[in-house]
Design goal:
Blueprint: E1 22-24, E2 27-35, E3 44-50, E4 58-67, H1 70-77, H2 85-92, E5 105-113, E6 125-129, E7 140-144, E8 149-151, H3 158-162, H4 165-178, E9 186-190, H5 195-206, E10 210-215, H6 220-225, E11 230-233, E12 246-251, H7 258-261, E13 265-273, H8 278-287, E14 294-296, H9 304-315, E15 323-328, H10 332-340, E16 347-351
Helix pairs in contact: 4-5
Amino acid sequence: MIIFRFYLQNKNESLLSPCYTNRRNGRDVMKAAVFEQYGAPEVVAIRDIETPVPKANEVLIKVHASTVSAADWRIRSLSVPRGYRLILRLAFGFFRPRKPVLGVEVAGEVIATGVDVTRFQPGDQVFALTGRRLGGHAEYCTLGETDAIAHKPINANYEQAACLAFGGTTALDFLRRLGDIHRGHKVLVNGASGAVGTAAVQLAKYFGADVTAVCSRANSDLVLSLGADRVIDYHCEDFTDNGETYDLILDAVGTAPWPRSKQSLSAQGRLLAVVADLADNWKALLVSRRRGRRLVTGVARESAEDLRFLARLMETGVFRPVIDRQYFIEQIVEAHGYVDAGHKRGNVVIVIQ
């Protein structure tokens, strides 16, 4: 094992072994997928950029795998729900991206730690959510030790671990905190074959719910294998017209808004709108003041505790991430193009060597 040492009194000295980094003009550089303008997949290109240096409370991770998630697609293309485009530009750069390296989830190895870090050490295998930091589509990234980072499940490879974070924590937070899911609940997952949907089906079954999955016929075997009790092919049937009611409807794709879905809720049912436009969020505030059926929106929390929970479920065989395709980082444009098409099953993985 290579031993890393920080020389904080000399900030010009390289923090990394030459085995792990390239040196140009006296600086450590790494390979990253960079986008310098918003737009189609072709705006992303592979570049050499400066390797990040961890602060005193941060860890430096050698990234082995990441994903192209819905968050990456939305940020890159500005394909956000109605009313949020201006907000996204203000958050990530009005005219061009302030953070040009996408990637909200990573799995890799801690190779260096700041002087104040106590929870992790070099050699630890971890997975994490980078959140608004982004930066996962690169050979290295830094995260605070109290951020959403946890040790990788012992039975997961890096590609599987990278898929646990985004869809898993989103589904978990909406079902458990916002939905208050209980055993015996009737749950419908709309968009059951995506990253959030495949996680929601498994988690709802874990919490003891009866699960109906809405997806295309082509994905019915997949969601049944994840534990769904029944499948509705949205090409052939509209779940809002079948007379069934549900305690929770989790809409992972934004095609089941409140006006369409409210009559399919039980007397105290909740529509969990993972994808909601600005009007839906204002409507949720109004509806939440009423008794009975409710519309619930929000942003999923990112916590190390939730990552550890998902890791335990995977280690006990209760939860498994679904991988559709894997691409090397050099194929990043192709990966974005596939996600843009809107037909991915589960997760699209980026392998970073």
